[in-house]
Write the structure tokens for this entry.
Amino acid sequence: MAEPTEVRQRSRRGVLRAAGGAVAIGAASSRGAAQASTTVDMTDSLEFQPANVQVAPGTTVVWENVGSIPHSVTAYEDEIPEGTSYWASGGFDSESAARGAYPGGGSIDGGGTYEHTFETEGEHGYFCIPHEASGMVGTVTVSQGAGGDEAVETGPPEVPDAALSLTTWLFTFMGLVLGLTFFILKYGGSDEEE
Ligand SMILES: [Cu+2]
């Protein structure tokens, strides 16, 4: 019968795909943990995407202008946590300075980026100076345990351990899958040898 052989070949390819996928996930997790950064796009439809992000303390948020219309990333002075230093593209130390300087300063052209590293927990509200009236606003919420990635929420010294244990777990899982597949190939297929 040709059928069992076909099934066997298909499951072997499936295992190879699964193994490749697990390795890719492991590599991606390690990279993400090392960088601890999040990207927010600024679009020609006058939006921050995503408009609301949650990050762990110490995360760098990178705003990237993916369109051609210039934007700014400007914190609302009264919508950042108490005791936080003011932040805005152009490096201004107050919202009024940022507003007053635009577009001479603080403008991010198409392809340009602005980044800020968030340490203080709480919600940071911000906007785009030329498109505030169009509703181009966003928030960055900084909290322990945020980010959705267990490697990111831990402090910098613990990140390699977290990434390592995830990778170890993935390789253990791959081993189990491979072992199970060999068992099935040996006892579940036809008695035809290869
Ligand atoms: Cu804008």
User: Anything to note?
Assistant: The longest strand covers residues 59-65. Residues 146 and 157 are 17 Å apart (CA to CA). The two ends are 14 Å apart (CA to CA). Residues 46, 71, 128, 130-131, 136 surround copper (II) ion (CB under 6 Å).
